[in-house]
Amino acid sequence: MDRALLHLLHGDGRASTKELAHAAGCSPSTAQRRVAELRRAGLLYFDVDYDPRVILRSRIAMLWLSVAPSALDAAGTELAHHPQVSFAASTTGPTNLYAAVNCKDNRELHSYLTGPIAALPGITHIESAPVTRTFKRAERTLRTPHIP
């Protein structure tokens, strides 16, 4: 059942509960529950591709932060709740916290970096890289993948 759900969602992440149930040969409530369980287990996630101009946040930037290990959980949790953050994760290497952020313009990005980011607990170093141009974004795949 899970493979059928994942296969359909890979081709169309907006498939309805009814379509998922039909593909998996189960009831709509079972399909909905199974998708929720797959998401909770981290086996299924949805990546949304959008035009940042639609939500008036056209300045995209990547941030790499070095945080004292004792403050990593607190800083990461706080960072993940910032409305500017579309993705945040703990990492390994010279930096241990990453974030993708979306701001209205360069001024807002600067205010964000010198305000909420600078105020995060345990921050020792910050690197940022504004995304000035995106050549290719995620798009729907036309071929059907092999899901074992």
Jot down its keywords.
5 helices, disordered C terminus, four-stranded antiparallel sheet, 2 domains, 21% strand
Quick description:
The chain is an alpha+beta fold. It is built from 5 helices and 4 strands; from the N terminus they run αααβαββαβ.
Shape by Cα distribution: elongated
Mean pLDDT: 84
Looking at the overall shape, the CATH architecture of the largest domain is 2-Layer Sandwich
Compute the number of strand runs: 4
What can you see in these coordinates?
- By secondary structure, this protein is α+β, with helices and mostly antiparallel strands.
- The protein has two domains: 2-40, Arc Repressor Mutant, subunit A (Orthogonal Bundle), CATH 1.10.10.10; 52-131, 2-Layer Sandwich (Alpha-Beta Plaits).
- The protein is 35% helix and 21% strand.
- It contains five helices and four strands; from the N terminus they run αααβαββαβ.
- The protein has a four-stranded antiparallel sheet.
- Helix 1 (2-11) packs across helix 2.
Q: How are the SSEs placed, and which strands pair?
A:
Elements: H1 2-11, H2 17-24, H3 28-40, E1 59-67, H4 72-80, E2 85-90, E3 97-103, H5 106-117, E4 123-131
Antiparallel strand pairs: 1-3, 1-4, 2-3
Helix pairs in contact: 1-2, 2-3
